[in-house]
Amino acid sequence: MVCLPLHKLGKILETHVKSQQTAEIKYGWKVAEIGEDVEKDKAWVKVEKADGSTEVREADYVVGCDGANSIIRRKLFGDWVYPGYTWDRQIVATNIYYDGFKDVDYDDSQFFVHPEHWHMVAKIQPDGLYRVTYGEVGGLTYDELKERQPAKFQAILPGNPTPDKYNLVNFSPYKVHQRCVDKMRVGRFLLAADAAHLCNPFGGMGLTGGIADVGSLYDSLRGIHNSQADDSILDKYDEVRRKIWHDVIDPISTQNMQRLFQYANADEFVETDPFYKTIKTMQNPDMKLGKGGPPNASIICR
Ligand SMILES: Cc1cc2nc3c(=O)[nH]c(=O)nc-3n(C[C@H](O)[C@H](O)[C@H](O)COP(=O)(O)OP(=O)(O)OC[C@H]3O[C@@H](n4cnc5c(N)ncnc54)[C@H](O)[C@@H]3O)c2cc1C
After folding, report:
1. pLDDT of res. 281
2. Is the N end or the C end of the chain the one with fewer CB atoms within 10 Å?
3. CATH (domain of 119)
4. Residue 154 CB-half CA count within 13 A
């Protein structure tokens, strides 16, 4: 398994985009207004630039892939219209160096099932940097979360360390959502990735779901450009990608997160959870692909 933090993945994607002769990246250009020119059959965006000037750009189609707070989505549907819900629990993503991990037999990544101290530990750099993402109750401020962090680490990390025993290099609380727009196409505007749908991060289906959107959208726009398809293929894009979110991404990511805290004790989890039973079956040496080597992910109940 390869784990790449977003800023490293971003650099790789940037290199590929820059190698395309027809693509241009404009940093510091912020979309502020959008509209359609029906007579010219064009969509337009008004951007505010870093130097304070503005400019209007038009195109046959505009794709809003401007993240969870998408201005394109808000202009199309309204500021507070994003169907779905926010979980009543939140997560805190941290990066730490901690020697205590050397004393335990952890795999590259593991998920800890616990009604209160559910969390995930993954090694993310060869130099020993670990990502520890843990669950918290909802409704806490940044300062309250920060104050609770040492006790959380003492409860969840091997060796129950105090802050002098580890180096906390990143601390990022996140609210977690399950949301999807009612339309990913409105006229000449299209939405993709977090601008169109959100899920909790357990299972890694957020960024990957967005990449799959863009693959389908690329095929659709290319088909229109080459006269192999008419504009109605964009409605198909909307239909198919939303169906996949509702049928696959939402239920699986929801189960992934619920599984971490829904069981009151380890015995209940081991006896009841179908996903855990599947993993146990896969750990059977006869089921493994290739020879030897332990599986590289674990579920641990405490
Ligand atoms: C803690 C955490 C862990 C995660 N882990 C995973 C994981 O393991 N695997 C996975 O697949 N996903 C994961 N995700 C989800 C993943 O990070 C997102 O799904 C993904 O980054 C969404 O990409 P995006 O391009 O849609 O939006 P973003 O990455 O948010 O990019 C949006 C871009 O639009 C720009 N923008 C915003 N507004 C404007 C504007 N008005 N004008 C111009 N530009 C604008 C922003 O500057 C930004 O560059 C995780 C998320 C969180 C919070």
Report:
1. 84
2. N
3. 3.30.70
4. 8
> Is there a contact between 277 and 205 (Cβ–Cβ < 8 Å)?
no
Q: Considering the domain boundaries, does residue 213 fall inside one?
A: no
Pull the structure tokens for residue 194: 């977090």
Distance 6 CA to ligand 1 centre (A): 8
Q: Tell me the HSE value of 91 on the side-chain side, using a 13 A CA sphere.
A: 21
Share of the chain above pLDDT 90, in %: 82
Residue 292: per-residue pLDDT: 47
Residue 149 forms part of a structural domain: yes
Atom of ligand 1 minimally distant from the CA of 66:
34
Segments in the chain below pLDDT 70: 1, 284-302
What is the position in ligand 1's atom list of the atom closest to the CA of 91?
1
* Segment 138-159, tens digit of pLDDT: 999 999 999 999 999 999 999 9
> From ligand 1's centre to the CA of 194, what distance in Å?
6
- Tell me the CA–centroid distance for residue 285 and ligand 1, in Å: 38
Residue 73 CA to residue 189 CA, distance in Å, equals: 9
- Say if 72 falls within a structural domain: no
How remote is the CA of residue 213 from the centroid of ligand 1, in Å?
A: 14
* 168 occurs within a structural domain: yes
State the total domains in the chain.
1
Q: Pairing relation of β-strands 109-113 and 119-123? A: antiparallel
- Residue range of the domain that includes 124: 86-106+115-172
